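User: Quick one: structure for sequence A, then sequence B.

Assistant: Sequence A:
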Amino acid sequence: MRDQPQPDANRGGLRVWGPTPCVAPTTMTGAGRCHAVGATHGRDGLRRALEDGGFTVADVAAVHHFPRVALVAVERVPDEALRDGARFTQGYLSTRPVVRVRVAERPGREPEAWLTIKGPGGVARAEYEYPIPAAHAAEMVPLCVAVLHKTRYHVRVGAHTWDLDRYHGSLDGFWLAEVELRAGDEPFERPPWITDEVSHDPRYTNVALALAHADALRKGVRGDA
């Protein structure tokens, strides 16, 4: 049985609700329990909340994200930006809430993999990411309700690093750019190769794109995976 939410006002402005069953693997720390976090500020409070739940800061690669997403004018991207990309296969074990498994492959390196759980929201959302064995992730991908493939490049622009994603399969030829900010109002430099911002458009989330790709596969449109 899940406890009724009991907001705690003494943790850096965070509303910490718990305990709830943890959807992550049993190999994770936290004694099989995790806290649902519902706020957009209070880093110290969030740290205490995670530690109270049995997690350490090292266990959680990112706990709150402020992503900004934009479409890309590919012809404006400099050639040097498109080097040393990582090939991603990512699948969604659940879409509500988002539970994603991702495998990253880079030339000359062993594959890496992560399990990520995302809270609701667009520009501001809670996010928990855990490294897992790549072999386990490969076994999870066929269990997913939707899968997509893309190549990711990292491009430094001003004080931030942008993720530049080229999608494959039925989405071949489609690109998105994303930058992660530390706060919703943090200023950032717009690179000359982005066009319209789509941060608030649900059609451009990776979940939506993966579901669109799955639908295309059912209709026999495969593209270059």
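Sequence B:
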Amino acid sequence: MDKKTYIKKLSNGIKCLFISTGNDGLIQIDVNIRTGMYHEDNDTLGLSHFLEHLNGYFLSKKYQDGRQMEEKLNYYGTFSNAFTTDYLTSYWIKGQKKNFDIYLDIISNSFNEFHLDKTLFKQEKNAVIEELQSLKSEKWNKADEKISKILYPKHIESKSLEDEIKNVKRASINNILKLRQKYYKAHNTLIVVTGDFNINSMWKMIRDSKFSKIVASEENPIPFPLLKYDYKGPRLVYTKIGNTDSTRLQFIYKTHFDAFSNKKYALDLLNSCLCHDFDARLYKILRMDKGLIYSISSDISLDNQDSDMGEYELSVEISFKNVEDVIKYVAIELKKLTEKMITKKEMTKCKNIFLTKKLDMSLTQDFEKYAGFYANSVMWKGKVIKFEDEFKKYDKVTREDIINLAKELFDKDNVLIAYSGEKKMTKKIEKLSLDRFTW
């Protein structure tokens, strides 16, 4: 399942991760920089996203024409893209092994001698704005932004899409270049090569590329902003959303541990116990027994750096007439998990889900999965965490671990209940609903 990996470092401080996938004739190179939305402030809001769009053209002092670059990449049959997240910006090229020297020349030049085309700048500014406008018009966006302001006050996460749109509209070329200069440092960068290669010849190619020409930067760590806010529940929040026949109901719990905590594995298993399939607890009661829902969604969002940014969310879209009953039964099921251990049968079933995922992973040659997973551990922990070791941690989770996590997680101080739609509950029913979560 796991691939052979090598970690090396250029003399200027750039780390390099090599992931060998065998003799398949395919290869991919990624540039990963530890910077993203969470490094922004009021003046730079949205600029990481904007810069990511520009990165995806791979322009440099050597290659200055965006249209010509598109033609060049298409001629060689490559796949390429860029993305940015809370703490990470990445861009990559994937294609045939025989053309790797071309991909390396393009991407190393674009990182070392970045070129910003004025026409492209205007074009991509409009593209970013259109993308943000589309997100802003999504059905539940108003409710999501309200929740973020409650959970993350004074944090960049609390900013609205309208705030971001306004700032992108104001952005100048100089703003983009200043942001890039601040964060695109040698010691803040990881190069990842995934695919079919000989490590000795590949390492020589990287050393001889423009990546080695980048000026070494001081090893001062890039600061990562922390939330510095301790949410206290329970709270119930309503957002009026017009022109909809449904009500979205969310149960959001703050987790207070990060993505590298061993509690993550217990949470994954607990989540499977609640809503993985029709045999899971919430599906059984809400759909199979009571017929109140079509489906239930869950989301585990754990931060790499800040334990206070983590969330566990359950959500449903239902008829307004079912809201009160769904709240009641969810509260009952979550409380049960804090009072009595899950059965041995449930535990075995939940662990088998992750065993199947392990077997599925052993058959994949998905470069993005390997590059993303291994790179994440190297960037945040300085070493490769293997898939095999990751899955072993699920097997070590006990039923006692799950009940202890449930007691810690499903505490009234951690919960935010949010519902959105055209209709609002009476204050009496809102109070009764909130009281159900104050055990």
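The chain has two domains: 4-213, 235-435. Residues 235-435 form a domain with the Cytochrome Bc1 Complex; Chain A, domain 1 fold (CATH 3.30.830.10).

User: Thanks, that's what I needed.
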